[in-house]
């Protein structure tokens, strides 16, 4: 499918209730601190409001976003990004003890091998301990190495635990419209997050190192583009069957 057609198909997926999208306990895999809010902020808030807060695992430390900053070396940035993630999920109603930081290196999450297997087993134990029945991972078409690695982690956890797997797009929304993609017509659902849109926007705004001008001494550092925020902070979130 062409990207423009795929995007239109995603926006046209049927709206389903939370009970159909996340019928039990939920494990959300976020490649970086901020992806939990960008891709699943509404879902997290809805689950919390329903009295069954999800478990959120943040895969990488996010410390590679501003590699040339002298004021924010990796250890300081790593701690900052963890704080931002805690503040963000608090906006969604999630307690800090439902947040797990796995500490993989930003931009170098493994796609296979012993470390991948170790992390997958750790996630499987977390899912089992917390009684999770559905795992949410980034969409396989997201054009970022850590998002792809986290999608593979989601598949591994699914296979280890027999969980249901759904994917959420983040960077995939910005694929050029004319790009031809190896993807069939998508199957999935949309969650109406109108009631939680403001909370999601607040959660995203907590990630000030990525959006908000906190770091000023690395002009080439990462900054969440307005086009991505416009695509993601809307009245719905999309979840795709693998």
Automatic annotation (TrEMBL):
GO molecular function list: hydrolase activity, acting on carbon-nitrogen (but not peptide) bonds, in linear amides
Coiled-coil region(s): none
Protein name per Swiss-Prot or TrEMBL: PIG-L family deacetylase
């Amino acid at each position: 499918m062409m990207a423009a057609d795929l995007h239109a198909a995603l926006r046209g997926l049927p709206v389903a209730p939370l009970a159909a999208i996340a019928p039990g306990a939920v494990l959300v895999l976020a490649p970086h601190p901020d992806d939990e809010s960008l891709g699943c902020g509404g879902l997290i808030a809805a689950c919390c409001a329903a009295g069954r807060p999800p478990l959120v695992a943040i895969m990488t430390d996010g410390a590679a976003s501003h590699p040339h900053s002298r004021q924010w070396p990796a250890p300081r940035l790593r701690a900052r990004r963890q704080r931002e993630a805690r503040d963000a999920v608090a906006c969604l109603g999630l307690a800090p003890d439902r947040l797990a930081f796995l500490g993989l290196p930003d931009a170098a999450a493994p796609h296979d091998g012993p470390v991948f297997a170790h992390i997958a087993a750790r996630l499987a134990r977390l899912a089992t301990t917390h009684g999770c029945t559905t795992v949410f991972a980034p969409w396989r078409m997201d054009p970022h190495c850590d998002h792809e690695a986290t999608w593979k982690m989601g598949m591994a956890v699914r296979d280890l635990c027999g969980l249901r797997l759904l994917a959420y797009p983040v960077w995939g929304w910005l694929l050029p419209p004319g790009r031809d993609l190896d993807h069939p017509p998508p199957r999935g659902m949309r969650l109406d997050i109108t009631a939680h849109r403001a909370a999601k926007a607040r959660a995203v705004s907590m990630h000030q190192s990525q959006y908000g001008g906190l770091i000023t001494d690395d002009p080439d550092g990462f900054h969440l583009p307005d086009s991505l925020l416009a695509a993601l902070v809307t009245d719905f979130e999309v979840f795709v069957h693998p």
